[in-house]
Amino acid sequence: MIACTIAGSDSGGGAGIQADLKTFQELGVFGTSVITALTAQNTLGVHGISPITSSFVQRQLQAILTDFDVKAIKTGMLFDATIIEGVVDVLKNTSIPLIVDPVMIAKGGANLLQQQAVRAMQEQLMPIAFMCTPNIPEAEVLTGRTIRTQQDIQAAANDLLALGVQYVVMKGGHLEGLHATDILFWKGGQFSVATPRIDTKDTHGTGCTFSAAITALLAKGFPLQEAIIEAKKFIHLAISHPLHIGKGHGPTNHFAYKQVQGKCEVMTHEP
Ligand SMILES: Nc1ncnc2c1ncn2[C@@H]1O[C@H](COP(=O)(O)OP(=O)(O)OP(=O)(O)O)[C@@H](O)[C@H]1O
Ligand SMILES: Cc1ncc(COP(=O)(O)O)c(N)n1
């Protein structure tokens, strides 16, 4: 099985392209990659960004799609509107499921998506996406809402579905509470997955890793809700077995899922 990630490079190896490829590999999926930007990054922060031109992003993507039978594609850091437009231009005529992780701001505060690009994400990328996986601050930017309550989450998910994306996973990592709960929404329904919240600072790359796991599992043909449950196991185990690498927000442990053979309990709820 082959999957593709369109994202930024994290020299520190915990997020971005590197997290995506490690996750694909651990889940038994062959990973291909389109790099949108280089970041000079470690667990302490982003120390520089060098974007790739939109036309070269397109060239990478076309090289992959004209040769490989790609079963699922994810996007991460897209950096600017020209890159988003270039990606949409290539993908709009394919039927490969597209998972959009709307990466905007790194843990240390660096901008991984220019503000002027939010509109291109809303108006061009969302209509061709199968799924998007915002965290709470990203959902706030994409919808212009303040999200505090369950009703706010539902309303923001409805706004995102109205943009044309078929499924929305609202990630709960930034909310408070004993559990880290993520909710899958579609028109007319919802399904949630939760695991105990872990008290750790080693959460660099959680969002990338979770969305890459969903992408890999969809590429393998898992039904959607099973893919969400298994991806939740992958990210919970990656957070709960920290590697203690670096002096700042350490990366998650991509080895853990395989090492414990996916053994992890996920609470599910479908109202
Ligand atoms: N402390 C934690 N304990 C358990 N699960 C967590 C924790 N933090 C995040 N998660 C889970 O990790 C996944 C990513 O969620 P999160 O909201 O952190 O994404 P993100 O904000 O995109 O990532 P990042 O904060 O690294 O940018 C979700 O499944 C979320 O529930
Ligand atoms: C190149 C790159 N892409 C994405 C993120 C955000 O990572 P996450 O939200 O998964 O922590 C990052 N820090 N660097």
Structure description:
The protein is an alpha/beta fold and 271 residues long. 36% of the residues lie in helices and 23% in strands. The chain has a single domain, classed as Ribokinase (UDP-N-acetylmuramoyl-L-alanine:D-glutamate ligase), CATH 3.40.1190.20. A ten-stranded mixed β-sheet has the order 3-2-1-4-5-6-7-8-9-10, sandwiched between helices. Helix 2 (54-65) packs parallel to helix 3. The two termini are 33 Å apart. The structure holds adenosine-5'-triphosphate (ATP) and (4-amino-2-methylpyrimidin-5-yl)methyl dihydrogen phosphate. The site of (4-amino-2-methylpyrimidin-5-yl)methyl dihydrogen phosphate has 17 residues, from strand 1, strand 2 and helix 7.
Produce a short descriptive summary.
The protein is of the alpha/beta class. The chain has nine helices and ten strands. The longest helix is centred in the last third of the chain and has 17 residues, at 224-240.
The main β sheet shows up as:
10 strands, mixed
Global outline: globular
Give the % helix: 25-40%
Number of strands: 10
Please state the oligomeric state of the protein chains shown: single chain
Tell me the radius of gyration: 17 Å
Count of helices?
Answer: 9
Percentage of residues in strands: 15-25%
Overall pLDDT: 96
Parts with pLDDT < 50 across at least 5 consecutive residues: none
Bound compounds, each kind once, are: adenosine-5'-triphosphate, (4-amino-2-methylpyrimidin-5-yl)methyl dihydrogen phosphate
Biggest sheet strand order reads 3-2-1-4-5-6-7-8-9-10
Distance between the termini: 33 Å
Query: How many discrete structural domains?
Result: 1
CATH architecture label name: 3-Layer(aba) Sandwich
Q: Give the CATH class.
A: Alpha Beta
- Helix-strand category: alpha/beta
The CATH homologous superfamily is named: Ribokinase
